[in-house]
Specification:
Order of helices and strands: EEEEEEEEEEE
Radius of gyration: 14 Å
Number of strands: 11
Distance between the termini: 41 Å
Shape: elongated
Largest sheet: 7 strands, mixed
Strand content: over 45%
Length: about 120
């Protein structure tokens, strides 16, 4: 079993910054990918950023140049640094991950989400 927990959301003003964390625990051997999605009320869940196993990153056009990804391998934690936040960034942010486990199997799942609210 793997647990995946997001944290770091909150209420901020436009132009402020937040750092979201996605922390995984369990019998993890290595990362396949970690991605951040967001979902506003009555909207689809959209991909925001993705980190691949070899460190490659990708970002949605709406956040490119403002959001960055980093990771602490020892802590099995990925960080989404969000700068120059805008009201349209308001959403619940979800962490999605796929890991290779120590027994050779793979695990895929989602965290419960963290709310980000940006006021104008």
């Amino acid at each position: 079993q793997v647990t995946l927990v997001e944290s770091g959301g909150g209420l901020v003003q436009a132009g402020d910054s937040l750092r979201l964390s996605c922390a995984a625990s369990g019998s993890i051997f290595s990362l396949r990918h970690v991605a951040w999605y967001r979902q506003a009320p009555e909207k689809q869940r959209d991909l925001v950023a993705v980190l691949a196993s070899l460190g490659g990153t990708g970002f949605a056009d709406s956040v490119k140049g403002r959001f960055t990804l980093s990771r602490d391998v020892a802590k099995n934690t990925v960080y989404l640094q969000m700068n120059d936040l805008k009201p349209e960034d308001t959403a619940v942010y979800f962490c999605n991950a796929e890991f290779l486990l120590r027994d050779g199997s793979t695990w895929y799942g989602w965290g419960q989400g963290t709310q980000v609210t940006v006021s104008s």
